[in-house]
């Protein structure tokens, strides 16, 4: 039996057994359980397992932090207990009810919608980074076939984002994901956009249609609200239409009702809300980029610990859609390297072989933006390294903020994403990352850890 099978069995046992698992998913470092009865979970026993870094309860989820090998443990649970991918993606209607704190419900909603699309956001962002390197340093031209093909990969993500969010939103709101995707494809239709924005405009049943100047291709809120409304319409159709004609009339009525209202009512309202959120953040940021960087840079990894950072991540995408720049990534990104630096400080200071290996591995993964191994495996465990990283995250965030640094695409912030920050404040951003990493490592080595 592999070590992953053994760990998988122990984890399932300590979360209350297979029968206590309502659903299961995983992100880059965590197994994310939704349990029927959370009281049946044995947190202390889970924390004592070799291979488990931490246990976090957040957003209605019971999260077991594994680190880089989470995918292997997840696959082992699937094989041992027959949990299918479809079951993992499914969210019961009861999960949509507010049964705990309001913030938990918001976090649960955002993570459920955004976590599945993170791989393509990261992939698209890294493609953009490669193109930036090519055009800046290697003489690549925008007319070259290589550039055109790779740039279309990036556009496939960031110019059609509502399509992917429609699918994950439909899973979250428990409606047909393919009907939701049809609505999203209509939302990003260049034919409708050009017609609405033409001099003549476009009317539907005598009602003039509106369209944001930048289109809906990179928008977030409009499609989420549209799919939420669609779920309500589909529920009514499923409940009241006779079974004989249900399969024919339900998709017809859902699309016929939802898509026009999406363009006439939901889209404009949601776009206004999105603009308000984006402008509100920009207003707060512009009051003092320095203070914004210090506050958000210092708090970011604390928010990560509690899973609350998911409430802020969509604002970054909204900023990209509105202004083409994401300052949130610039002022919070250095905190990743601050955590990595603290882990490196522990690795250099400790004389214990196991601690050195764990800490050094955590520092390396943090260098590439995965901070959970550093946070849960080392820094929180010994406390002072985490406090030092938070302090350096605040300092380095202030440096990046004061220079108005920003990313031009989404994705986590690490060594490979540096080209995304080329432009205003780029040098200051590089300085902030180095200060965060080196400063945390030195301070932790000197003051933050003793065997």
Tell me briefly what this model is.
This protein has helices at residues 3-14, 43-47, 70-81, 85-89, 102-114, 118-137, 145-158, 161-173, 177-187, 190-196, 221-240, 243-287, 289-306, 313-323, 327-349, 353-367, 372-382, 384-402, 426-448, and strands spanning 21-26, 30-35, 54-58, 61-65, 203-204, 207-208. With 451 residues, it is mainly alpha-helical. It has a four-stranded antiparallel beta sheet. It has a two-stranded antiparallel sheet with strand order 5-6.
Description of the molecule:
The structure is a single chain. The protein is mainly alpha-helical and 451 residues long. It has 3 domains: 3-90, 2-Layer Sandwich (Gyrase A, domain 2), CATH 3.30.1360.60; 159-274, no CATH class; 286-448, no CATH class. It is 66% helix and 6% strand. It has helices at residues 3-14, 43-47, 70-81, 85-89, 102-114, 118-137, 145-158, 161-173, 177-187, 190-196, 221-240, 243-287, 289-306, 313-323, 327-349, 353-367, 372-382, 384-402, 426-448; strands at residues 21-26, 30-35, 54-58, 61-65, 203-204, 207-208. The strands form 2 sheets. It has a 4-stranded antiparallel sheet. Strands 5-6 form a two-stranded antiparallel ribbon. Helix 15 packs across helix 17 (372-382). The longest helix has 45 residues, at 243-287.
How much of the sequence lies in strands comes to 5-15%
Q: Estimate the helix proportion, in percent.
A: 55-70%
Number of domains: 3
Number of DSSP strands? 6
Low-confidence stretches: 85-100
Number of helices: 19
Pairing-aware structural class of the strands and helices? mainly alpha
Major beta sheet summary: 4 strands, antiparallel
Mean pLDDT: 86
Secondary-structure element string: HEEHEEHHHHHHHHEEHHHHHHHHH
Distance between the termini: 35 Å
The Cα radius of gyration reads: 23 Å
Shape: globular
Pfam families: PTS_EIIB (PF00367), PTS_EIIC (PF02378)
Keywords: Cell membrane, Kinase, Membrane, Phosphotransferase system, Sugar transport, Transferase, Transmembrane, Transmembrane helix, Transport
Domain PTS EIIC type-1: 108-451
Protein name: PTS system beta-glucosides-specific transporter subunit IIABC
């Amino acid at each position: 039996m592999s070590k992953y099978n053994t760990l998988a069995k122990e984890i399932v046992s300590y979360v209350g057994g297979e029968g206590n698992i309502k659903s299961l998913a995983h992100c880059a470092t965590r197994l994310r359980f939704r349990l029927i009865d959370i009281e049946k979970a044995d947190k202390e026993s889970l924390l004592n397992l070799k291979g488990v870094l931490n246990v976090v309860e957040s957003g209605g989820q019971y999260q077991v932090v594994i680190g880089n090998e989470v995918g292997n443990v997840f696959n082992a649970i699937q094989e041992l207990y027959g949990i299918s991918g479809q079951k993992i993606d499914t969210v019961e209607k009861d999960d949509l009810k507010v049964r705990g704190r309001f913030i938990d419900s918001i976090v649960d909603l955002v993570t459920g919608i955004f976590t599945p699309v993170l791989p393509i956001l990261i992939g698209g962002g890294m493609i953009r980074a490669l193109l930036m390197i090519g055009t800046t340093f290697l003489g690549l031209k925008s007319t070259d076939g290589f550039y055109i093909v790779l740039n279309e990969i990036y556009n496939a993500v960031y110019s059609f984002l509502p399509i992917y969010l429609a699918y994950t939103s439909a899973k979250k709101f428990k409606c047909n994901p393919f009907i939701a995707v049809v609505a999203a494809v209509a939302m990003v239709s260049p034919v409708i956009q050009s017609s609405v924005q033409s001099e003549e405009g476009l009317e539907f049943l005598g009602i003039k249609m509106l369209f944001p100047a930048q289109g809906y291709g990179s928008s977030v809120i409009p499609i989420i609200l549209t799919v939420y409304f669609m779920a309500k319409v589909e529920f009514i159709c499923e409940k009241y239409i006779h079974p004989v004609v249900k399969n024919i009339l339900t998709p017809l009525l859902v699309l016929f009702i939802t898509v026009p209202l999406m363009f006439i009512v939901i889209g404009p309202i949601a776009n206004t809300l999105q603009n308000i959120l984006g402008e509100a953040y920009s207003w707060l940021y512009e009051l003092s980029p320095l203070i914004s960087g210090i506050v958000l840079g210092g708090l970011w990894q604390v928010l990560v610990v509690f899973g609350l950072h998911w409430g802020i991540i969509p604002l970054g995408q909204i900023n990209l859609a509105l202004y083409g720049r994401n300052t949130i990534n610039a002022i919070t990104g250095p905190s990743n390297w601050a955590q990595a630096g603290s882990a490196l400080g522990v690795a250099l200071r400790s004389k214990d072989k196991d601690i050195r290996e764990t800490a050094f591995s955590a520092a390396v993964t943090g260098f590439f933006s995965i901070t959970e191994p550093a946070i849960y495996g080392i820094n929180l465990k010994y406390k002072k390294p985490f406090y030092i990283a938070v302090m350096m995250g605040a300092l380095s965030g202030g440096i990046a903020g004061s220079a108005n640094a920003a990313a031009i695409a989404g994705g986590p912030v690490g060594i490979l994403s540096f080209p995304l920050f080329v432009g205003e404040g780029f040098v200051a951003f590089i300085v902030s990352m180095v200060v965060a990493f080196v400063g945390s490592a030195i301070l932790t080595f000197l003051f933050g850890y003793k065997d």
